[in-house]
Amino acid sequence: MVGKGIWGGVLVSPLIGILVGLVAARLRKLPAGGRVFFSLAALYGATYLFGLAVGLGDLVTGVNRGEGSHRIPSAVILQSAVGFLWGLTFMGYIVVLWPLSYLNCWLIWKQADAPSEPIGSGGNP
User: What percent of the chain has pLDDT over 70?
Assistant: First the structure.
């Protein structure tokens, strides 16, 4: 089954999102050029981590193992990660996903800069 191999990344993707969000919130004071570069770096970093998780899932479940297969564990994991980076760059997904990454980071920065209200101060007398 083709879709079975990606479940390692799907299960880890919420943690990857939280990690990227926490790093983005800490870097909210970057200048405009730094923010654009960070959104690109965050996209590539998240894609690499997703690829590592897919490779680890492949290694654990043996989804792509064939008859007489002798797989090097580190190569299985890294080839998946590099494959995702290759696809992001050379298949053109970067054109669509980079602006979405910037939008995601912008929303995080906007929320991180918003003044926080104490819980229970809904304005009712």
Answer: 86
